[in-house]
Amino acid sequence: MENSTEVVSFVLAAYGHIGELKYLYFSLMLLWYLSVLTVNTVLIIVIYVDKKLHEPMYILLYNLFANQIGASTALYPLVMSQMFSDTHEVTLPWCFLQTYYLYICASVELCSLVAMAYDRYVAICCPLYYNVIMNTRQVGTLSVLVWMYPFINSVFSFSFVVPLKFCGNVIDKVFCDHYLIIKLACSVSVLNQVSDLLYAFSTIVIPFSLILISYMKILPVCLNTSEENRQKAVTTCTPQIVSVSSLFIGLIFHFSDSRFDVALVSDKVRIFLSLFLLICQPMGTPIMYGYKLPKIRQSWKRFLFDIK
Fold first, then answer.
1. Helices 136-158 and 56-82, axial angle in degrees (round to 10)
2. Which of 50, 79, 93, 107 could form a disulfide with 150 if both were Cys (CB 3.0 to 4.6 A apart)?
């Protein structure tokens, strides 16, 4: 099979034969997806409605919650539709679109955490200049960069994938994966390999490095401040540190599953680990921030009470 026109769809082989369990899996996934949409939407509305939350940190959180909805929408509808498919086929355009969208969402997540880490750095290390540095224009610029940087990076990376000719169509996963798609190509140029490495560097290594630098600067200040200020710093920084750690673990699972031989791991465990990021993060993020940050916790309680 040397002609790329013969490959019109990819087969998601990780589903296997789930039999009657498809109804249980579908119900659980639908419930989880609706829960993710509800929780994140409520927090978005709370931040939008409550003027007390119109501060840099909460505006940046607004982007994070919106991205959780986008990432979940990129995954769950397709996965749920595949539950009732006998062939588990996905057309090339849809597969490319899902991969592109998922990679954008992962990058937006990291960029949002970078912006929030910078916000915490200014608030803790330069408190007297916080209102000057984190003004409305600066927050607006950060919000635009959070979305534009991933979009431009992904366009650049996928411009090398779309023209590829494919000699295989079986993807051993429950969703479309960028690296596994490239592996199915009849031939991969050095440019494709370099673009993949550059994409990983620009969307993962650089953001993680910036987050690490921010918290390395925050830590000495927290250690040399009063107990009250230290407690405030811990309260606002803990959800971000947990989010970054969870994201890091999820990315390790994702890339390990795509790039290494994991034959010793059972299929169910492997599927769960590859989905860890897209299952836990969309719900974990709103729970952590909605519960740990006092202002948001008070606001959504007032919001729910007023509705009732």
1. 30
2. 107
